[in-house]
Amino acid sequence: MSRTAALTNYVLGSGTQPAWLHAFTMDSSHDILQPSPSPSAASELDDVERVRALAKAKEQVLEQLRRRIVGQETAVDLLLVALFARGHGLLVGVPGLAKTSLVTSLAQTLSLESNRIQFTPDLMPSDITGTDVLEQDVNTGERRFRFLRGPIFTNILLADEINRTPPKTQAALLQAMEEQRVTASGTTHRIEAPYLVFATQNPIEQEGTYPLPEAQLDRFMLQVEMGYPAADEELEIVRRTTAPEPAPLQAVLERAEILALQALVRRVPVAPHVIEHAVKLVRATRPSEPAAAERVKNYVAFGAGPRASQALILAAKARAVLAGRFAAELEDVRALALPILRHRLVMSFRAEAENVRPADIIDALLRSERA
After folding, report:
1. Which of 156, 253, 259, 344 could form an SS bridge with 114, CB 3.0 to 4.6 Å?
2. What crossing angle do the helices spanning 99-108 and 73-84 adopt, rounded to 10°?
3. Any idea which architecture 268-371 has in CATH?
4. Which CATH class is domain 40-260?
């Protein structure tokens, strides 16, 4: 029987639905058969809608943050990149630049649990990870230990002035940042996703501080440098902060939505030449590379490792999606090179003597790659 005859019998009720008809759907507006999307095509359509939803959610988050934060647009954009790329962020700036306010305000707009730890020289590892406490059952008199979770168990952790605590306590963060879990008394405790650490650091304070080791710096996806506000921005800051308390910020995204959008970022396609460019850029920071530039050999002691290449691609994906685009591009990688690479370069004594900064090296590499 022909397809036309089979379809006629089915429509008139005198036949069964042909198997090939399952691959089509009826367009009610035009009463015509349209091909049904395959499961993979339907998934791609869903992702397209999610990209649009994330771009829209970004604008809503920015709208809420602007009610509390004046200026610092670059810092806000980078924190959102870190959030959806599942990366940690290090905010560096002098006191009074709204580093703490930015992180706490972001947490409020995301319906996520957040904790703040004020790091001090006397802070112990158990103060942040938690400790075992001895409990006694009032009925049986039985005693047992129970793990009391510390403030590290949250969704967004604000590690305020992280460089003011000793290395032993700084190291307590490493397992949580890298593995999203904490081991105490031989028992491993999982931290619920999403989990992000946003740390602040004062670059001018030297008394009673402990520089972060390179191994811990490498765990931060990006370093956000926060500078002084412009004159008009500072006027607005003073006007707002001396006025009555503003209304609370509204939550824009729920936890489940954030997890779905983080998974979406992982599925964003990246062309091979974009990945090659990111890896080439990272390898160019290593003085041991045969093709390394003379400037790198003279001023860099140790370059960025493979984690920097991974961060460049993941952050580029997140930046593309936040802009409403469906693929990461070369410009995304180049725009994120400075915040991702600058805290991963270990400069030589010659660089310190001649005041050559990591930003100078990265800028030179980007200009040479474009030439």
Report:
1. 156
2. 50
3. Orthogonal Bundle (1.10)
4. alpha beta
